[in-house]
C-alpha cells in the first residue's frame, strides 16, 4: 500500500489497483466507484495519472479502481472475453466495498468496447414503475435500471472505436487507401487475434451478426443498450487528428457529414479541447442513408445515437507530443504524455458525483 500527496494506493490480491483519499474523514464518505479501463496491450499503470487526479480533486466522493484483468496480451482475446473478465472484476470490487452506492466507467480505446460489453452483463432491470404520481425526474431514475444495484452516473470513453476500425479512415495509419484497408480487414486477426476480428467486424460466431452490431441493442441476456441508457451521462472524448490508431469519426460516433469544423481553443484551462456538443437521442430510418455510406457502420451509428451523447473533441496539433495523440489524450505516461492533463481536468470538472 502506498500513500502520497493525499492519495492512498493499494494493489489487490485478486487484481487491479484501488486509489482513494488518505484522509480517513474523506475516505469514509466516498461512495462512488470509478472504474478505469485501459486499452489494447495496456495495463493499470496507463490510468495512474488520471486516477490520482480524480482522488486529489474529489477526495470525499470517489474511489478509483484501475482494472487489471485484461492486461497486455489478454486484450487480444476478444471484446466479449475482455468484457466478461471486467464484469467479474467489478463484482469483486463491489463485494469488497459495501459502502459503494454509485458507479462510473472511464475507458480508453478498445477498453471502451470491453466496458460496454461488461455493463451489458452487469445491468439490472428497473423496479416496476409505481402507479402513484411522481415527478418526472424520480420516474426517470426508477425506470432507468442499475449496474449491479448501483446508481449509474458517468460512462466516459476516450478514443474508443465505437464504430469499429474497418471503415474508410477509421484507422488513420492505413492512410485512407481503400485497398490497404480491405487487406487489413482480412489479416488483422494475425496480429490482434480475436479482438482484431471484432474491431474489423469480420467475426461470425455461429452465424450471428458481428459483435459490435449486436452491442447496439439488447441481445439475449446481455442488456447492452439498456445498460448504456442507465447512465446519467454518456461522453465520448475524441482526437480530431494525429491519432494514428483510432479515427475521429469512430471515436466520436458520427457520420462523415456530422464532423464539425473546429478552431483552436481559446481556453487557458482546456487548451486542447476544440469542440464540445451535447446531442439528444435520435431515430433515423436506415433506408434514407446515402448509398455511399457503409451500411454496417450506419447501423452502429444509428443504434448508438438513439441515446444522448456529450462529445468532446480534442486536438494536440500544436503540441510536440501530437504524434502520440492516442496516448496523450489519456496521459498514459505522466512525463511523456503530460500535455493531455487538461483533458483529464475537463473530465473531472464535468463529472457527476
Automatic annotation (TrEMBL):
Region listing for Disordered, in residue ranges: 1-20
Name used for this protein in its record: Lipid droplet phospholipase 1-like isoform X2
Gene responsible for this protein: LOC103713584
Location of the DUF676 domain: 29-250
Entry-linked Pfam families: DUF676 (PF05057)
InterPro entries xrefs: AB_hydrolase_fold, DUF676_lipase-like, Lipase-like
SUPFAM superfamilies in UniProt: alpha/beta-Hydrolases
